[in-house]
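As the next step, I selected for study one protein, both as residues and as discrete backbone shape codes, as given directly below:
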Amino acid sequence: MKLIIAIVDNNDTEEALTQLNKSGFLATHIASTGTWLNTGSATLLVLSHTAQVKQVLDILHTNCGTRRHHSTNDFTYSGLVNTTESGGGAAFVIDLEQAVRL
């Protein structure tokens, strides 16, 4: 059994949890702060059988992957396009000896 700890963009949390739950995984999130993403972030805790880790990571990658945003520079009216990235994160897969519902 594995515990997957994923630090993701706050904006991606709801959809990631929805997709994980639809796929039958037990998952929850806790609000977190720090400098990992330089934006609001959440920590997802996902319980998975060892054989299903790839499926969990695929769901996280699909719903929490890095996105590029393009915008023009409004301050100088130069028409230059500014590209920024958002989303993304990191996942840690940890061996779990036992999980107990309380």
